[in-house]
């Protein structure tokens, strides 16, 4: 697909990643329409002029919403993705993440101008292995969320094979940045620092994750919209580096300029928590030219300022 102005429909576009992505698309001159049930995200955070259909992706109302907009590209983000919630609600997770994707693709078959579908998937489709994970690693999800995202990828691949639409799945690693809507590690740290405390209570302290800033993720997704025609079925979106929970706290301490003590709270410890999750981004960079630009300390320093966390 060319890089000229397009009509781009974003499901889940009022959420954490979606808001950043939609904002960047508008600034790039695209015509953007959002489909979101607004159960988590808020359309108030979207740029002026962006139209929003408050529709569940599982709903029969989705097809007429797509037909009325007739997009050139669809970027599918709508999902339940907070892992502890997914573990407790596997049926709902399957319903939204799998059946919602199928409903979207069924509706997409009726569109006249659709050229591209970018499916936002997750590194949770991978097995728990040490070291950087390339797209050649055989999937082996270890929880309901990862399993649901893998089935979603398979549905998108099949859609691409049976239509003339270019498709690709973006396997996001641990996204952080302004506007995060789930209580993941970095928001949990900032919440505890905001009142002036310099001691944080966290769960598992040793797992290593690849933390990628939401601005870099948005840039990656934009590249995939433009390069889906020559992309493989899935590409990793991460930084290529992994940091332990303790290392993240140390990075926050460095960004803040103050020592932070960390203790383990057994109530926060996840029963099932993979020890290592790290991206190999060589293929993503080769296919699209994308590389991450926001370092962890710089990204955290920005968050501290935005959250009003200052040195005491």
Automatic annotation (TrEMBL):
Designated name of the protein: NAD-dependent epimerase/dehydratase family protein
InterPro entries with a match to the protein in the record: Epimerase_deHydtase, NAD(P)-bd_dom_sf
Domain NAD-dependent epimerase/dehydratase: 8-238
Species for this entry: Haloarchaeobius litoreus
Family the entry assigns: Belongs to the NAD(P)-dependent epimerase/dehydratase family.
């Amino acid at each position: 697909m060319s890089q000229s102005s397009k009509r781009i429909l974003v499901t889940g576009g009022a959420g954490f990643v979606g808001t950043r992505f939609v904002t960047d698309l508008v600034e790039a001159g695209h015509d953007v329409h959002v489909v979101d049930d607004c159960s988590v995200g808020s359309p108030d955070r979207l740029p002026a002029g962006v139209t929003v259909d408050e529709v569940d992706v599982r709903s029969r109302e989705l097809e007429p919403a797509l037909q009325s907009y007739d997009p050139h590209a669809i970027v599918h983000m709508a999902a339940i993705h907070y892992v502890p919630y997914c573990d407790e609600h596997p049926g709902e997770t399957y319903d939204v993440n799998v059946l919602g994707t199928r409903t979207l693709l069924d509706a997409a078959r009726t569109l006249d101008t659709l050229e591209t579908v970018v499916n936002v998937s997750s590194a949770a489709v991978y097995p728990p292995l040490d070291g950087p994970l390339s797209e050649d690693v055989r999937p082996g999800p270890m929880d309901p969320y990862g399993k649901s995202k893998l089935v979603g990828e398979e549905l998108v691949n099949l859609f691409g094979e049976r239509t003339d639409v270019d498709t690709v799945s973006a396997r996001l690693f641990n996204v952080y940045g302004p506007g995060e809507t789930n209580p993941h590690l970095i928001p949990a740290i900032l919440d505890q620092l905001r009142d002036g405390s310099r001691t944080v209570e966290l769960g598992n302290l040793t797992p290593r994750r690849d933390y990628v800033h939401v601005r870099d993720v948005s840039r990656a997704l934009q590249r995939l919209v433009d390069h889906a025609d020559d992309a493989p079925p899935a590409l990793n979106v991460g930084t290529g580096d992994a940091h332990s929970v303790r290392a993240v706290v140390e990075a926050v301490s460095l960004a803040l300029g103050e020592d932070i003590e960390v203790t383990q709270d057994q109530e926060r410890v996840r029963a099932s928590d993979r020890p290592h999750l790290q991206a190999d981004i060589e293929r993503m960079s080769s296919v699209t030219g994308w590389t991450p630009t926001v370092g962890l300390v710089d990204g955290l320093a920005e968050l501290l300022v935005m959250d009003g966390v200052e040195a005491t």
